[in-house]
């Protein structure tokens, strides 16, 4: 089931997201998601662990038909307040999605894997309900910011005490175990602690810099390849008689 945000967590998270430096960082992250996913307007996406709706808003801006799912009713209330009736909402868990196979064009896990009990099961469920691509966005284990967050959790009670962090290599390993050899594209964002200025903007848009595996935010797009299972069929036939009977 993982960690479910309570009322205090939800309010604290919303306040954190509204800080100017964090809003700027989210802009870099959501732009990375858009550039990697390249979604077609009008197609459907499931935002797994949609939280208070920030990633849903970014997906709506891409022209997508959005559905949000989260285990926290408090987070869903904030998302409904932010998005309104422009999306559908469900309460549920990433490891057990209440949807049929191939229900959506895309599935999105935007800083969701950090708070689930079984990341591989959550990824498998995302692959099950999506038919085209999934986007995975996580806090980087090996970024300076990620290390700072873990250290903060040692000395004070923060939400990161309940989080697990990932690297590019760990995510690719999980994906290969689930899907085998499928197309995977990754980039990172938030390379520097600063989030404003022309230099920072230029740096964050550099495709070369985004290939650095140590940015604070890792974005991965997995292209789902259909698999077909075959089974042998029994062939029934009657052999022709090749010789005629000899009369005695």
What does this structure look like?
- The structure is a single chain.
- The protein is globular, with a radius of gyration of 23 Å.
- Helix 5 (119-129) crosses helix 7.
- It has helices at 7-17, 20-37, 54-61, 73-83, 119-129, 144-155, 168-179, 198-204, 207-210, and strands at 44-48, 65-70, 87-91, 104-110, 130-139, 184-189, 217-223.
- It is 38% helix and 19% strand.
- It is α/β, with parallel strands linked by helices and 248 residues long.
- The model has no long low-confidence stretch (mean pLDDT 88).
- It has a single domain (7-223), classed as Rossmann fold, CATH 3.40.50.
- The chain is built from nine helices and seven strands, in the order ααβαβαββαβααβααβ.
- The protein has a seven-stranded mixed β-sheet with strand order 3-2-1-4-5-7-6, sandwiched between helices.
- The longest helix is centred in the N-terminal third of the chain and has 18 residues, at 20-37.
Number of E strands: 7
Assess the beta-strand content as a share of residues: 15-25%
User: How far is the N terminus from the C terminus?
Assistant: 84 Å
Strand order of the largest sheet: 3-2-1-4-5-7-6
Largest sheet: 7 strands, mixed
Unreliable stretches, pLDDT < 50, 5 or more residues?
Answer: none
Mean pLDDT: 88
Instruction: Tell me the domain tally.
Output: 1
CATH-defined superfamily: Vaccinia Virus protein VP39
| Total helical elements | 9
CATH class bucket: Alpha Beta
The helix-and-strand class reads alpha/beta
